[in-house]
Specification:
47% of the residues lie in helices and 11% in strands. The chain is α/β, with parallel strands linked by helices.
């Protein structure tokens, strides 16, 4: 689709990371921007910075796991700007608790934001995009949506996002209204995703304890994220995909290779075999050895 003045973009999780980068990239294309996030101080700062780019902006505190709040965001967007054309369902979190022995609340939080947040975003905004005569929806998944191996709840949520996004694309291909769909599947990006529990919702009770089994793996993930791709580079690829009407957005092709190998295993009906080297991490055997040593 063509981007520019007169178009309106909405980004969830816009207070930092990929979300802020997406808001910035769309603003640089001339779009009016609606920023949504659950963290007020980050959202306020992001809104001020986007406004300084010379585009109309609106911000709203939104918990995307709650359908009513996302629907209210859509209504407020149309009331303020009259239409919406690009929606980036980007808000995401990662839990750190034991997935099998820890509290269920961690699963509820991750699935609520990562999966249900996308569902709510599509349902709330799709009618308005259609009413505007067309547009584009971008759903942020992860390479974890094609290759499990990060954490069970996160992997499950992102697999879900990939599935519903592809289904949405197929459905909209039959629509007379031109609405494009993109699925963003990044690898390591320099964000605050590992500190997402700073926004743990009080309604879910006490913040769960950190999974002791995950401490070794987390150490290396922290380094990989610190050295990861700048969010702005990811956002540039997304904007290119929106303009080109391209579904898949893979900023990290080295991660795509291990996902392809996994599908080869599926085709051959062999048992899963994790790769010895995951991009950005030391050999798997080294990580396992350190984990076993930590348990002695």
């Amino acid at each position: 689709m063509e981007l520019g003045r007169g178009k309106v973009g909405v980004v969830t999780g816009a207070g930092s990371g990929i979300g802020f980068a997406l808001a910035t990239a769309l603003a640089n294309e001339g779009l009016s921007i609606v920023l949504a996030d659950v963290q007020k101080d980050a959202l306020d700062e992001a809104t001020e910075r986007i406004s300084a780019l010379g585009v109309d902006t609106m911000s709203r505190i939104v918990d995307v796991s709650k359908a009513a709040e996302v629907e209210a965001l859509a209504a407020a967007t149309v009331e303020r700007f009259g239409a919406v054309h690009v929606v980036c369902n980007n808000a995401g979190v990662a839990g750190r608790s034991d997935p099998w022995g820890g509290p269920l609340s961690s699963w509820e939080w991750v699935m609520g934001v990562n999966f249900w947040g996308v569902v709510h975003g599509v349902r709330a905004f799709l009618p308005h995009i259609a009413a505007a005569g067309g547009g584009h929806i971008v759903n942020t998944a992860s390479i974890a949506g094609l290759y499990p191996g990060f954490s069970p709840a996160y992997d499950a949520s992102k697999h879900g996002v990939v599935a519903i996004t592809e289904s949405l694309y197929n459905a909209l291909e039959l629509s007379p209204v031109p609405i494009g769909v993109s699925c963003l599947c990044p690898g390591w990006v320099h964000t605050k995703i590992l500190d997402a529990d700073r926004n743990w919702p009080a309604e879910l009770g006490a913040l769960p304890d950190v999974d002791p089994m995950g401490v070794v793996f987390r150490k290396y993930v922290e380094t990989a994220i610190d050295e990861g791709m700048p969010p702005a580079a990811v956002a540039d690829r997304v904007v290119e995909a929106v303009k080109e009407g391209r579904f898949w957005v893979f900023p990290h092709l080295d991660f795509l290779e291990i996902a392809v190998e996994r599908f080869h295993q599926i085709a051959e009906q062999t048992n899963p075999v994790p790769p010895e080297h995951m991009p950005g991490l030391p050999p798997r055997s080294q990580i396992i050895a350190e984990l076993l040593a930590s348990l002695e």
